[in-house]
Structures are given as C-alpha cells and as structure tokens.
Structures
1.
Amino acid sequence: MNNPVITLGEYSDKASLEEKCVMAPKFDDNGLIPAVAMDAETKEPLMLAYMNKQSLLMTLELGEAVYYSRSRQEIWHKGATSGHTQKVKEIRTDCDQDALIIYVEQLGAGACHTGRNSCFYRKVNLDDGKNPAALSFTKSELTFDPNIVYRNK
C-alpha cells in the first residue's frame, strides 16, 4: 500500500492563517523557514537549521529531520553522514507559520558537528560587562569525536 502524498496549504491572509488548521508555512525570500530542533524528552534545544519546501515535505514523509544546508545549498538528511539521525516526534509552528520547532528523539551520540549533544553549548555572560560580550561553556564534554565521524568531509 502506498503512503499518500503530503502537501502543504497556501500561505494566505494573516487572519485565516492564524486560526485555520492547515499547515501553510511562510518561507522567506530565499524559500527557507527556520527550524529549531529540540529534544522531545528534555526540551533542550539541540540545533537551529533551515528547511525549504522540499526538506519539510521529506521530513513529514520520512518521520526523520531533513533540512536545507545554506552553506552547501543542498538538502541535508540529518545523520546521513554521522548516523546521528533525528526521529521526529512533533512539529509545531508559530502563529504566522514562519518558524518551526521540531521535537525529536536524537538517535546517536549528538546533534552538533563539533561532537556535542547540542549546538547550544555556550551561554552569553550577561552581567560581566566585558567588550566584546563573553561566552562560557555550559557543556564542554564531547559525546563523539567529530574527526572520526566526519573524516571524509
């Protein structure tokens, strides 16, 4: 049995967009929408990426996170190289459908290409008065060796 083809609604007027139960994402001028991947269990932010229409539809169809790499200008199935895939548990959109939160089960050692579980491993020191603003590590330990995982990149 074939799975039905998933489609998206058309982005229309703001009022109907905010109240209708149709997914009609508002992509930016480059055809992208920001997507924050968060751990479905802990609610920890894992990474920020972008999706285009094709990668969003692939995500909906596969049940795994698929993004669009702005630097490589190509579709990026998270974990295709590292094996650290993201199983989608829930997708939320904001009121005007121009941003996404993707709750995922992070499979494998981590989400960040630096070898950490999360790309958000530093915080801004708000009260130290330094210029430029200083960062400190919230988590410095690596969960995998990126030199081994990405050796062919």
2.
Amino acid sequence: MSIENYLLYLAAVGVFFATPPDTSQLLIISNSIRYGLKHSKWTIAGDLSANCLQMTAAAFGLAAVIASSATAFIIVKWLGVFYLAWIGLKLFLSSHASTDLSEPSSKNKVRLYKQGFFTSLANPFAVAFFAALFPQFIDTSSAILPQLIILGSTYIIVDGLILFAWGVAGIQATKRLKMFNFSLINKVSGTLMILAAGFLALKDIEPGKP
C-alpha cells in the first residue's frame, strides 16, 4: 500500500465521521454525562471491540452472507433498537442519583463495556460497510493481511479519538447540568439513548456507515 493510498483512506474515514453523532457516539455522550469520561472509557472499549469483530467478519467474507439475508439484518437491527430504547427509558424514568463517579466497580466496568459492545454489535450494517470500504484501498499486488491490519487499526484509532471527543463534549454538558439535579441528568442521558435507538431504527436495510 502506497503512502498516497493510505492518506486517501485516512481522508475517507475522516469524511465518514464528519457527521452528527451516531448511535454509538450518543451512547458515549450519555454515559459521559452520567458517569464521567473516566467511566465511559469502558463503553468506548466495548464499542471498539465490537468493531474489531466486525472487521474480522468482513475480512473472512461473512459480509456477503449477512448482506444476502434481509431477515438477519432486520432481526439484529431491531434487537439493538429495543436494547437502547429500554436502557434510555429506564434512565429517563429514574430520579435517583447516578453511580458514584470516583471509581467504577468491576461490575459497573463490565456493564458499561457491554453497553458499548452490544450497541455497536447490534448495528447490522457494519460488517458490510467494512467489506465495502477496505477493498477500495488494498493493493492486490502486495500481501493482503498486513494491509487489512493497517486499515483496521487506523479505523479503530480514528474511531476511538472521535468517541473520546464526544465523551469530552458530554463532560462539558455535565458541568452545566450539575447546577440542576441528577434527575435532569438521567432524563438527558435517557433521551440521548432513546434518540440513538431512533437513529438505528430509521436506517435502511442497506450497507452504510457503522
């Protein structure tokens, strides 16, 4: 892979993220508002772990299987919609204070990780997206695996930085919300998750941005 091709790929990935917050990013904002950026890093880790699995699936050709089954797309998609909506509704209706922000327990770390992991994994478009994206920048005259590792690692790094930036935005929102009360924080967080569920529900059954 030439440096020119790599820079073109980097620019393409940047364009993909130059949009309003998507499902995973709204989840990061929500958890940053409730728990702080130190805690929401576990959600980011879960999201990126799911992306790694989706890239691996794409590399082994599962994208063609998934893309050929609209039923599989619909099932995975609506499981994700209901999961996010359920979490959001619970938060919105909750009036008690959030978890202590000093240091997350092991149980809370796992819970936040699972939220990020399953929210990203519930997006049925991601595998097809990676399968469509990577071949555009691969030099078939060179070894394929190293190029896939470079492309995948670059995506993970960029995605992680973007998620971190949205987490910082959530922290800034928290500073403003703290002048009110935890009930309001829960309602804002719950609304963000319900919006994330709505965005996922409105996606067409076609490969697109994960």
3.
Amino acid sequence: MKRLGKRSTEEETDIDITPMLDVVFIMLIFFIVTASFVKESGIDINKPPKTNEPPNPDAPKPIVIEIDKLNEIRIERNIVDFRAIKSTVTRLRAERPDAAVVVKVHPKAQTKAIVQAIDGIKSANVSQPTITLSDG
C-alpha cells in the first residue's frame, strides 16, 4: 500500500547549520576585539576636593564664569558672547594673575555652551579651570 504525501524513494534532506554558526562565531570574535580598542573622547575636569573649611580670606577672588539654563555665558555677572571669552579671561587674568578660574554650570545647560566656554578659557592660557554645578 502506498503512503499518501511522501514517496518511499525520496530521502529527507537536513540543512547543515554548522558553517553558519562558524561564521557567526567569527563575527562575534571580530566585533569583541575591535570594540575593545575604541577610545572615547571627553573633557578633562578638575574637581576641587570637598572640604568643610571656609576659604582663605587672603586668597585672590576667583574669576567666575557662569553658564545658565538658557546657555548664556556670564563672566563676572556680565553676559559675554562665546567668541569674547578668550579676551575677557585674558584681561581678568592680567588684573588677577593668581586667581583661579571657576566655571559654574547650570544642570540644564547644553554641552555645546560648556565646551565653547572651556575652549575659550583654555585658549586664554588657563590650563585647568574648575567646573562646578550651580544651585539652580
């Protein structure tokens, strides 16, 4: 009697997935090896140590640069364009050569404004400005 659907002379063929698994494994190794050499770029930040001591009253008044939530850059409470940061900081550093440069950043400020400010400060020959978060 004949079976319905399949012939008795027909062989069943299986798909061999071993070569596909080899290729996937080699790709996995390749991506793991190449991902470990990716270097992320970033900004070096100089955070001051936390102390409970009041600041020294004889220390020079720091040069304060503020970036608010509207991305306005203020130096000594005056609004300054990011292109004028270098000249303003250079002038203030000439008046107060020992003064530290402090950048107060609002938590909602855009990274672009922060980077522009730090680039302007570093172009004024300030090696490491101190960056802090403003209260609001």
4.
Amino acid sequence: MSRLLFKLRNVPEDEAEEVRELLSEHQIDFYETSAGNWGISMPALWVREESQFQQARTLLDTYQAERSARVRAEYDRLKREGKHKTIIDSFRQNPFAFVAYLFVVYALLYLPFKFISALGQ
C-alpha cells in the first residue's frame, strides 16, 4: 500500500525536483499527485512499496537537513553582503501590488472590529 512521503504544497520547484531525483537515484518506486484543476487536492510524493518507505524517509530527512543548512548559509551570506530581500525591495519591485496587499490586510483587520462595534450599539 502506498504511503505519503512528502507534501508538495508551497514547496519551491527546485526542492521538489531535487527530491524526485534523490528518490530516482536510489531506485525508490514513487508517484506524484497534483493539486488538481482547482488546486484543492493534495500535491505530494508517495512511495508505492511499504518496504521502501523507511529508506525513503531516511533519505528525505537527511536531504532536508542538508538543504536547510545550505539555504540558511546562503541567506546569511546575502545578509552580510546586504543583498537579502527587504520590505523596501518588495515595494520597489511592485508598488501597486504592495499597496493592494496592505489595503487587503487593513480591510481584513478593520471590518470585523467595525461589525462587532456596530452590534454593541
């Protein structure tokens, strides 16, 4: 029976591809499910054979620890060099979207309080 190994929702494409390659290199039989047409299903990698699951889990845990260390080192390097992305960089890249997101957040915070205060009167 198949077992869930790795959920792919909000996973960067390069990480998902590296995990696929890792499983293929070690001849682990797996398949992938997508989010579906509406994006509500669970995109994931599944191991077909129960007997291979523990090996796959060990490989994935090792990979994720290595990736975490590598990404953290890259971020620290960029931060030391002053090249990491800041909120000002986000505003400069797309000021319209930045302001639109701020408006949405403001509306989501303001409207419930307005509604509750109107009920209290």
